[in-house]
Amino acid sequence: MRVYKSRTFIFKKKIAIMKISLPARLILAAFLAALIIPATLPAQIDDTFADYLEKRMKAERVPSYSIALIGSDGSVSSHNFGFSDTGRQSPASEHTLYEIGSVTKTFTGLLLLIQLEKHGFDLDTPVSVLSNGKINLPSGDGTEITLRHLVTHTSGLPRLPANLAPVSMNDPYVDYTYEELYDFLKNYTPDVAPGERFEYSNLAYMVLGHLAEVLGGADYDTLVKEYITGDLQMESTRRLVTDSTRFATPTMSGLAVSTWNMDHLRGLGELRSTSSDMARYIKAYLQHVPFPYQSALATAYKPLYVRRQDVHLGHAWFINTAHADTIVHHGGGTGGFRSFVAFSPVSRKGVVVLTNSNDDVEDIGLHLLNTEYELNELPDVVAVDEAALNRLTGYYTAESMPGFRIFSEGGALFGQMDGQQALPLAAVNDTLFSNAMVQAEIRFPAAGDEAAFMTLHQMGNTIRFDRSEDGPAERVEMKLTADQLKAYTGTFHSELGLSFTFTVSGDQLNAQLTNQPAFPVYADGADSFFYKVVPAELKFRRSEDGKVDAVTLRQGGQQILFLKEN
Description:
With 566 residues, this protein is α+β, with helices and mostly antiparallel strands.
């Protein structure tokens, strides 16, 4: 799943879960050969393809791939590349554990189909009926939301609940509860009727995970084992890892990051698994192994919704019908993991691709099933020696901008704005570096033992940062009581059509900008607050009577005034 982590220099890109992220942007955008292999799935990945993967691992700083290929006869071949840890001590294997993110949603979809058969319901039964009145969902036109709407992401519910306010973007779902989810839904009105529009929704699968528990009469973890993983002997597929020695280190751009945990939510992106286990899961859909609920497996990938001409949605699965083939697939992404599983009912072949990196592996999986799907082109990699990199490293500052740290690790250069995640910088030459993901370039002067300045080029902007001997200033957080924070609550509007809504939860002030999740903000002075997820500040204004009547957002050298709604 992608709740998506921030990928910014100036601002933000897309969460994942999952396929998803949790965007930390506020306003602006982020920082700022198809190979020829045999047309049929090979018994082994050939040398040409292995060479491509190894080059891709180097270019994208990927620690490992774990790949399983399922042949039309049900045979499985395992292909593992790299190491599961950043110290390069543990080679990846078919038994290495990875977070599979939103691939978890296919387990939820299958669990619900099994429960529908057991209880005699169908896909068009309203959720309120399925849950015996325990789950009541808002609707855009009064039409009740059904299971069909939720599993196909057409319920009208948003991608994420607006009151999801992570304490840390490193583990964004860990503290969110079902009580908070249903509190949000009580006050939410969709802007479209059920079935009218596709919008990928992690929120919908939060509801579905709970619905599976209501129908199954047990907790989600128990249901997964009882109805799916137990019968398929998938002993390593679970939410809680029992053997940490097999758990891969999550990374982003080659740097270790936190695992993602869901202590309360179920069904949308919390499972961990291995390529060996996931191969057995895919074999069940292809009828290569026995499974007691075979009719549910067959129903799971029947088209329910047409997203576009060659892409349909099934019961949690995406279905591609291009290139004279049918490929049923789902991907997943958490902070430092990506996953992709797919199978073709036509060829009866399948593929599993897992990695402990933020390298999207969908193209690899699709290409292994059908070579008409092209692989991503690899960027040219220019080697820069360590001495040349060292003269560039340091801390740089610019007026009205967050500070910018340049550092090297493992022979590669990274850039990191204060409060944001480090991003890799690919060398164009020894003074010019770029990051294609956020469409930014950084140029350093050629002369001198140390670069005296650097210039950031992004989104048509050119900003000079000068080397500073001082590191980032520490912000001192002030503690305010809930009563003090209430003075800042309300809705504020700008002339740009954007709105801010401020709410208090406990002793925390949360700020929500139009079409974005709520994020906590922290006081550091009189009527002054700052974000930790992005480098941005809020300065409230008071009228003559002492009441707050406006707020100014300061970010990336820009200032936007929002006036309080009367």
